[in-house]
Amino acid sequence: MTRKLVLIIDDDPDIRDLVRMSLETVTGWTVLVAASGAQGVQTARERSPDAILLDVRMPGLDGPSTFQALREHAVTRDIPVVLLTANPQADERYRASLRLSGMIVKPFDPFALPHRMADLLDWTI
Q1: What's the pLDDT at 94?
Q2: Residue 91: per-residue pLDDT
Q3: What's the rounded Cα separation, in Å, for the pair 72 and 69?
Q4: β-sheet bridge partners, residue 51
Q5: In the chain, which residues have pLDDT < 70?
Q6: Helices 63-71 and 88-98 sit at what angle, rounded to 10 degrees?
Q7: Which end is more exposed in the chain, N or C (fewer Cβ atoms within 10 Å of the end residue's Cβ)?
Q8: Is 36 left (phi over 0), alpha (psi -120 to 50) or beta?
Q9: CA-based torsion, 38, 35, 96, 114: positive or negative
Q10: Cα–Cα distance between 125 and 103 in angstroms, integer?
């Protein structure tokens, strides 16, 4: 099992907790959480995670704006980002235009989530 560092950026504390528990339990990855886009950008710059799971709809700095801020900094520019969305049809345009690593749709199966992330990032569990 490869030890990875994953950052979850989502304003919903229930989603953050569910994703964190799911990834840690199934994969053993270390999971960081951020409650806003601004906090997520700061955490990513400080900790340089192996991947980021990013919510689209957040107050303040939304998902696409957070993604752009990550791409503008040398430390975070190449970190793979997976979009987390409740509206995949509307948010598909972000995935294509921002060159994201993939998309996970809410609601999601917490038992399948780690495997989906691993598949999108070409990681082994």
Answers
A1: 60
A2: 54
A3: 5
A4: 6
A5: 1-2, 88-98
A6: 10
A7: N
A8: beta
A9: positive
A10: 19
Residue by residue, what is the 3-state secondary structure of the chain?
A: CCCCEEEEECCCHHHHHHHHHHHHHHHCCEEEEECCHHHHHHHHHHHCCCEEEEECCCCCCCHHHHHHHHHCCCCCCCCCEEEEECCHHHHHHHHHHHCCCEEEECCCCCCCHHHHHHHHHCCCC
Per residue in 39-59, pLDDT (tens digit) is: 999 999 999 999 999 998 999
- For the entire predicted model, the pTM comes to 0.92
Whole-angstrom CA distances from 91 to 21, 24, 45, 106, 116 are 25, 27, 25, 12, 18
Of 121, 99, 119, 106, the C-alpha closest to 19 is 106
Which of 106, 94, 105, 101 lies closest to 118, judged by CA? 101
At residue 11's C-alpha, the angle toward residues 26 and 40, to 5°, is 80
For residue 81, give both structure tokens.
């980002």
- Sign of the Cα torsion 60, 44, 46, 74 reads negative
